[in-house]
């Protein structure tokens, strides 16, 4: 993968950096939470040239983090030096612009020693094994120990001496989730290393992630690693990419446009093996898909950028998660054009059809939607009230359609019937439907002009509001599946699903773990059919992952309901009969928030007669 691979001195001699270099290093807190300690320790193991790493944690890493590697190890002389601030074996010639390893500051171990009880046992060839301990910054004497070549570093009781910081830790589950994400990211960056993550909480031993060592860091090995960590589905639905321009190489896997996700949780970027969360890179990926994917969907991708170390500055942020490229525009264009090319080869294209001029004349509907008992509107509309007592269109054709309707060639027997219909509904805010076009848009006519309604977006909103109502009273209608659907997920995904299992069952989604890598879906909300369950669960996973750390349960409930609504709504592509269209419009008029779909896009736009006339040069 990276021809500028890790190079550390084989002797592993640790030396103190001098003052001028120290001052250049991006200062800051190295350890914010258990996951950041895990990241530092694993990176040290990778830098030590290991091929197997085991991570054991307890209580979300709060009481125990133990990282065991089979790397180079440290000698008894180096052990105490490793614990000094700014002592490192990695910064060659003190050159911060030529960094070939994850570490370079010599800050991680002393920081860990200051915030928890640290024990290092290390065996370096020819020196035997030794142990050293640090307690609240106090370093013990070295004593002989027993272990094979490599290093074990154990951090217990993180932040025990600083209760203020202890308070900022999140729940055990979310800390464990953050650790799992960290291990996932690091394991994707180094397929040639085996990883095992074990949860040791309460003296038990639960394997969370285990990946075998791949033979190298080639694209084929990356693919195997990705499918193990991100799931088979990702590798089945992605395309490999491998482009080089002016010494910068971009490889990895990017998803097909149809494999859009609900959040950017499944986007991984690595710069010379280092995982980064860089706004520019995220933006370039989005731009690459802008023609193929709606704005509220996110591509999944694992992108590896390899370049000469002096092309990129990693010393920008204490967490080293941001980078600065010498030629940011060049990197952006490599990503955008590289991805577009591979997508084009796969034959997926989409195009936009609306002319800018016509768009300019259109506007989002701004007038107030009436409530069910809005007298003003009721009076204005000639023959109708909003209470469902419709003369032509009874409630049983409301748009929660259970079956597929066939388009009817003629919805009206006579011209008069049609004229009466238009006259009757034209005075309603959303007017009388006159046609469906593009298999998704209803065109309707009201007294101001025409309204174009996105049937999927609109119906999604109605279903969402209805589900929210039902959820409030714990009354979501469910259907049991005769044969439970067995779906495969990766281990970390299963972890999240099981965590939310009870909540999901309140929304009508009953799941149970089924073997190590699968779940069985036993009940689904009645509004859905079973075809799209897998995609729905993936979307829910993305939502939950996205909201993991910050948001309230209510927000999570709504996010899940919104996903269910999306999958339970009439799709674009469904032909609708006039009465179905009419009933959809009337229901929209009675539903709060029906002006936007669940993703904030408008459900309908209006073009005033005067605007149409202007477009035709009549005004
Ligand atoms: N698992 C390990 N195996 C072998 N040597 C290690 C291991 N962990 C740490 N070391 C040695 O201890 C030194 C200090 O580690 P530390 O993580 O504090 O600093 P660093 O990795 O050099 O820089 P950074 O602060 O950027 O991580 C390293 O330079 C390395 O020589
Ligand atoms: Mg380090």
Description:
With 619 residues, the protein is α+β, with helices and mostly antiparallel strands. It has 4 domains: 15-208, Heat Shock Protein 90 (2-Layer Sandwich); 231-345, Ribosomal Protein S5, domain 2 (2-Layer Sandwich); 356-458 and 573-615, MutL, C-terminal domain, dimerisation subdomain (formyl-coa transferase, domain 3, 2-Layer Sandwich), CATH 3.30.1540.20; 476-568, 2-Layer Sandwich (Ribosomal Protein S8, Chain: A, domain 1), CATH 3.30.1370. 34% of the residues lie in helices and 22% in strands. It has 20 helices and 26 strands. Strands 2, 3, 5, 6, 7, 8, 9, 10 and 11 form a 9-stranded mixed sheet that branches. A 5-stranded mixed sheet has the order 12-13-16-14-15, sandwiched between helices. Strand 21 (441-446) and strand 22 (449-454) form a beta hairpin. Helix 6 packs antiparallel against helix 7, helix 14 packs across helix 18 (553-568) and helix 17 runs antiparallel to helix 18 (553-568). It starts with 14 loop residues before the first strand and ends with a helix. Mean pLDDT is 78; it is low at 1-9 and 347-410. Bound molecules: adenosine-5'-triphosphate (ATP) and magnesium ion. The site of adenosine-5'-triphosphate has 23 residues, from helix 2 and helix 4.
Please tag this protein with its features.
4 domains, formyl-coa transferase, domain 3, binds magnesium ion, 9-stranded mixed β-sheet, Heat Shock Protein 90, disordered N terminus, about 625 residues, 5-stranded mixed β-sheet, 20 helices, alpha+beta, Ribosomal Protein S5, domain 2, binds adenosine-5'-triphosphate
């Amino acid at each position: 993968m990276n021809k500028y691979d890790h190079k550390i001195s084989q002797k592993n001699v640790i030396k103190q950096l001098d003052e001028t270099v120290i001052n250049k290093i991006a200062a800051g807190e190295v350890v914010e939470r258990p996951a950041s300690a895990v990241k530092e320790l694993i990176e040290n193991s990778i830098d030590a040239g290991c091929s197997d790493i085991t991570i054991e944690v307890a209580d979300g890493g709060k009481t125990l983090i133990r990282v065991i590697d089979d790397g180079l190890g440290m000698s008894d002389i180096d052990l105490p030096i490793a614990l000094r601030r700014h002592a490192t074996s990695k910064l060659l010639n003190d050159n911060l612009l030529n960094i070939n390893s994850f570490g370079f500051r010599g800050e991680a171990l002393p920081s860990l020693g200051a915030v928890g009880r640290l024990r290092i046992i290390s065996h370096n060839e020819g020196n035997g094994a030794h142990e050293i301990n640090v307690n609240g910054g106090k370093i013990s004497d070295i004593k002989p120990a027993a272990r094979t070549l490599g290093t074990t570093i154990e951090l217990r009781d993180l932040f025990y001496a600083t209760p203020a910081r202890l308070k900022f830790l999140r729940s055990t589950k979310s800390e464990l989730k953050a650790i799992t994400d960290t291990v996932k990211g690091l394991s994707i960056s180094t397929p040639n290393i085996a990883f095992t993550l074990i949860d040791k909480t309460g003296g038990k031993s639960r394997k969370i992630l285990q990946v075998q060592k791949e033979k190298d860091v080639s694209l084929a090995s990356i693919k195997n690693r990705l499918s193990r960590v991100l799931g088979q589905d990702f590798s089945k639905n992605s395309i490999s990419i491998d482009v080089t321009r002016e010494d910068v190489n971009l490889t990895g896997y990017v998803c097909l446009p149809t494999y859009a996700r609900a959040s950017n949780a499944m986007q991984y970027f690595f710069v010379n093996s280092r995982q980064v969360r860089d706004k520019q890179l995220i933006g370039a990926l989005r731009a690459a898909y802008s023609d193929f994917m709606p704005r509220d969907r996110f591509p999944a991708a694992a992108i590896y950028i390899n370049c000469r170390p002096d092309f990129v500055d990693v010393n920008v942020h204490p967490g080293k998660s941001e980078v600065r490229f010498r030629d940011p525009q060049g990197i952006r264009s490599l990503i955008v054009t590289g991805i577009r090319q591979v997508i084009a080869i796969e034959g997926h294209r989409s195009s936009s059809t609306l002319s800018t001029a016509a768009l300019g004349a259109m506007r989002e509907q701004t007038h107030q939607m009436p409530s069910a008992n809005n007298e003003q509107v009721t009076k204005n509309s000639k023959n109708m009230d909003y209470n469902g007592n419709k003369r032509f269109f009874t409630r049983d054709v409301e748009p929660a359609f259970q079956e597929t309707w066939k388009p009817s060639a003629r919805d009206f027997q006579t011209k008069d019937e049609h004229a009466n219909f238009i006259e009757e509904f034209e005075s309603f805010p959303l007017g009388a439907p006159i046609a469906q076009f593009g298999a998704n848009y209803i065109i309707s006519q009201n007294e101001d002009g025409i309204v174009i309604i996105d049937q999927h977006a609109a119906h999604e909103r109605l279903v969402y509001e209805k589900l929210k109502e039902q959820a409030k009273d714990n009354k979501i209608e469910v259907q049991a599946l005769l044969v439970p659907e067995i779906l495969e997920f990766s281990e970390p995904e299963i972890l999240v699903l099981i965590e939310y299992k009870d909540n999901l069952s309140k929304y009508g989604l009953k799941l149970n773990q089924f073997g190590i890598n699968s779940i069985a879906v036993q009940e689904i909300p009645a509004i859905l059919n079973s075809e799209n369950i897998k995609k729905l669960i993936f979307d829910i996973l993305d939502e939950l992952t996205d909201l993991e750390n910050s948001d309230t349960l209510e927000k999570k409930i709504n996010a899940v309901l919104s996903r269910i609504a999306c999958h339970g709504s009439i799709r674009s592509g469904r032909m609708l009969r006039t009465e179905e269209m009419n009933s959809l419009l009337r229901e929209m008029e009675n539903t709060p928030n029906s002006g936007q779909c669940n993703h904030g896009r408008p459900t309908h736009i209006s073009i005033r007669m005067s605007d149409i006339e202007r477009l035709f040069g009549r005004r």
